[in-house]
Amino acid sequence: MTLQEKAKAYANTIQSRYDDEDLDTINLYHECSRAYLDGAKEALAEKPMNRKLRLVVTDRCHNSCPMCCNNRFDLSALPIVEHWNYDEIMLTGGEPMLFSNKIYNLLCALRDQSQYLQSEPKLYLYTALPKMGPLYDFIDILDLLDGVVVTPHTKKDAEDFKFANAKILSLKDRFAHKSLRLNIFPEAKPYLEGIDLSMWQIKEMQWIKDCPVPEGEDLRRINNLFR
User: Fold this and answer.
1) Residue 39: its pLDDT value, please?
2) Looking at residue 46, what is its pLDDT?
């Protein structure tokens, strides 16, 4: 099956879901389908591409960090993602976990469409807020991810992390193969003392002014940012 045939098959699969899913989920699946079709064209053109995608899903955040990298961007003005032909896709924001149900649906869509790709991209989430949501919580979302990067900034963030971490520790075998990374800024460090962090790769962080997009990565946004 050619890439074009795979793309058409995926689009047909998405269409068959329309009667069974709510509007937000339909839009997410449609966005994955559109981007996959564009990606098939891109691959067929054999253009050189970066292999990692940093995908902004929202410009909303519960924190207002003065040195945040996003302060240098108008996230709503970023280019829209055109394809999914990446080795890694990193969901970021804003704060993605403010929209945990939509993140869950988007990850499901990305996992579904990966069967039509030549390779399955690894999926990661960048968050400060590993909260337990009303429907799909952090643990449900972690099941769909290859890894997560958690960066608490406030006492509330740290409290949410403690709760999620306790759950992860209780399910150690289930998540042993996940990439779990914890970024710790000086202002959050006191709130994380005395916690069992044995499941996490820990990195001490400092704020960097005008932090650049890492080499080899595309910075894009979804068509309709979560708001």
Assistant:
1) 60
2) 55
> In whole angstroms, how large is the CA radius of gyration of the chain?
18
DSSP string covering the chain, please? Answer: --HHHHHHHHHHHHHHHTTTS-HHHHHHHHHHHHHHHHHHHHHHTT----SEEEEEEES--S---TT-GGGG--GGGSPBP-----SEEEEESS-GGGGHHHHHHHHHHHHHHHTTSSSPPEEEEEES-----SSS-HHHHHHH-SEEEE---SHHHHHHHHHHHHHHHHTHHHHTTSEEEEEE-TTTGGGGTT---TTSEEEE----TTPPPPTTEEEEEEEEEE-
| Dihedrals phi, psi of 34, to nearest 5 degrees | -60, -45
Q: Which two tokens stand for residue 166?
A: 């306790």
User: Is residue 84 in some structural domain?
Assistant: yes
Q: Which residues of the chain have pLDDT under 50?
A: 18, 44
Give this prediction's pTM.
0.84
125: domain range?
49-226
Neighbours of 69 (CB within 10 A): 15
How many angstroms separate the CA atoms of 95 and 91, rounded?
Answer: 10
The answer to whether position 39 is within a domain reads no
Assigned token pair, 71? 């302060």
Q: According to the model, what pLDDT value does residue 23 have? A: 53
CB 144 within 8 A of CB 115: no
For the chain, what is the domain count? 1
